[in-house]
Amino acid sequence: MSAPRAIAHHSFAAEFDADKPFKLTGVVTKVEWQNPHTYFYIDVTDPATNKVTNWALEMGSPNGLMNQGWTRNTLKVGDVVTVDGSLARSGRPLGNAKSVILNSTGQRLFAASSAGQ
């Protein structure tokens, strides 16, 4: 017998710091449309060093995102996006997205963030 895999769910404040906002622009490398949180990943290039860092960005659940106008195909690998959100407390390249701008169209979508809950 094996134990079922538990899906970790956390409060916003346990993992992210609302007092540490960020704005990142990068290229989408992966999208994980799943419960309880959708994640997407972007490569961000530091203009000073040209170092590329892959950031993991958490959004709300698929249902919450659909209520904000998202579909499973809104973000695609290769899209350039600008993301506003809050940094992880751990200092890792991880953030909770508040909004996402699709740079090709200028469309801004809210990320069904768990901030403030």
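The above is record 1. Record 2 follows with the same two-line structure.
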Amino acid sequence: MISPETAQRETGASGAAVRAAIEAGHIQGFFSETLVTLEGVEKKDRVDLLGKTRLVSGSSSGGKNEITLTIGFRHFRNELNTRVLERVRTAVTLGMRGLRAPARFGSYHAKEEICPLFMPPGGMPELLRCMDGVNKIATEMARRHVGQAVAVELGVHFSQRDRVSEPELWLQGLGRARNRTEAEKVAKAISEYADGDSIASHYGFGIEKFCSDDFGKGAAGPSVLDRDHRKWLADEFGIQFVTLSELAERVAT
């Protein structure tokens, strides 16, 4: 849809139709910030960059008998490559807006200047209500071991395999991939993480339809986008999945 002239899977015509509908204001488009924060990390860099994530702490004294302790996360990211950056800029120019991903301890969020995030009408109270929905469905995905849970479980597995003596973040565990095969598992796990959080964002913010031609066929195991989980999400949460061609047909009527 962003660049229908270079589309794969013979979806160029459908992408052009949906883009025209967005430009005309007939439909409003959204995308998850995971397009930047997760998918924006090139597959070849995911082991190295995400594995560098660290929990950091500091302390300061404000006077007699007063000590302030701070705990936070140090994330590492390269600049977005040109292809991804242009996709985001084009989407924003079309009027599309980024949706906040689930709020987790240590989450990394997109910078506003790159990916303007949507603020729902009603301000902060409504944003908090939306985020409750985002976090709720993300939790349910984790219970089914799809979405972010795939990456978490892989990172923990690598840490346990290497018999780490000190506790470490699951992201650090991902950095322990030993070879190309394991690095590919990490790359796929992060893609699954991004897909799950993208669905969670769309659900929480009440977006009517979730458009994707991805059915999780490239995943290493069960995927939040496979047919079984699409059915679960539709039945339990009312998520309406459409392919790009199906969305094109609907906007044309």
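The chain has a mean pLDDT of 91.
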